[in-house]
Give the backbone structure.
Amino acid sequence: MGMFDAIDISSSALTAQKTRIDIISKNIANANTTKATGGMPYRRQTVVFRESKKSSFENYLKRFSDKFSGKGVEIEEIVEDESPFRFRYEPGHPDADENGYVMMPNVDVVVEMVDLIDAQRAYEANITAINTTKSMMMSALDIGRR
């Protein structure tokens, strides 16, 4: 593991968590959007992470040279939540059906806020990891100067 690998790993996590925060913000902003693309209500999106890896040949060599082979985290894909839409009784709404029900997005603002707090804490933890790594490097340089 190189000297800057810890910073590289934490910075990849910062990028991933920022994207997660952006998607959560998009979900909250569209919590009441009854007509999105295709005429259906907005569908909640989630981010799927995966471990960043080098090419397969490098992974094969790395497996035998040392125990750590990951290079951080990256976004594999952004997927739509397939849970059912909610229905709300609003007979005067322009998108209401013949019974007065409006099909609403499958976004629960409380769940999104909990996810947002989780993503924020993960972001903060990675900033702390970068600062700690930086502090350790500075201490190592100080030891080398003596």
